[in-house]
What we know:
Layout: E1 2-7, H1 12-23, E2 28-32, H2 35-49, E3 53-57, H3 65-75, E4 79-85, H4 100-128, E5 131-136, H5 149-169, E6 174-180, H6 188-192, H7 196-201, H8 214-226, E7 231-233, H9 236-247, H10 250-266
Parallel strand pairs: 1-2, 1-4, 2-3, 4-5, 5-6, 6-7
Helix pairs in contact: 1-2, 1-8, 3-4, 4-5
The structure holds NADP nicotinamide-adenine-dinucleotide phosphate.
Pfam family, one: adh_short
Organism: Hymenobacter cellulosilyticus
Domain Ketoreductase: 2-182
Amino acid sequence: xxxxxxxxxxxxxxxxxxxxLAAQKHNLILVARNAEKLTQLSQQLQADYxxxxxxxxxxxxxxxxxxxxxxxxxxxxxxxxxxxxxxxVGSGGEFVSLSLQSELELxxxxxxxxxxxxxxxxxxxxxxxxxxxxxxxxMTAFMPVPYMATYAASKAFVRSFTEALTQECQPHGIxxxxxxxxxxxxxxxxxxxxxxxxxxxxNSDYTTAPAQTPEEVAEExxxxxxxxxxxxxxxxxNRLGARLLACLPNAMIARYVARTYQQKLAHH
Length: 268
Ligand SMILES: NC(=O)c1ccc[n+]([C@@H]2O[C@H](COP(=O)([O-])OP(=O)(O)OC[C@H]3O[C@@H](n4cnc5c(N)ncnc54)[C@H](OP(=O)(O)O)[C@@H]3O)[C@@H](O)[C@H]2O)c1
């Protein structure tokens, strides 16, 4: 039986995606840390849509988590034909003042675990000569972001890694796609410890800056998957923004972002 595996499926974009794919009759494997939430959600989606939904509780900020997830799927003979590496965490504020431990865990979750899951699930996909991997980046993948330096760098990694693998995997009949959301109304800021003040400085305050809903973003992801778009930026406004950013030198963008943050925080 084939499944779609979604990491970070218990909330935000991952949860919206799980609901929409279940409604479209896809069997799901949901990954997140909170086991209780996963059990509830699996039962609810199974009852609502009559599909098979499995949960694997795992902390992808730990290096051994990807292997654990892969082993579980192998043991139960759950064939993953679509892997969505969506789980991710942010961080915001002056780099030197942030906890080194949590910056390193961010890198493990946003980059190393994503690489590990991609590596593990690519092998059976190659044998079957079919499958899709979608890596969720961010608009920050396209620019350096002072006061969000590690997060933006992790997403730039995801972008570069994914765009390279797209080409490597094409001859094997496997699609590796990059999906980049912009500001989306989820629990992202709270999970990252980004308070209202910092969010305002980073232009990432959902209550004032234009943001998409997770449902809109999930819908675009599904559309990009079906259209096999190698790179898709969610939201028309974000796509325009990305085009503009591509014309500007990185140093200029970084200077502007840093000044905005410094000025906004000085006024608080
Ligand atoms: N929201 C935005 O504005 C925005 C913009 C651009 C890109 N993105 C990207 O979109 C993706 C989804 O973000 P979101 O906004 O939906 O975030 P969210 O609302 O905070 O949801 C994050 C999901 O990931 C899970 N998760 C967090 N840490 C984990 C860990 N260590 N191991 C396993 N699962 C973990 C959470 O569940 P548990 O807490 O139960 O583990 C939850 O299901 C991320 O990659 C993010 O970088 C978001």
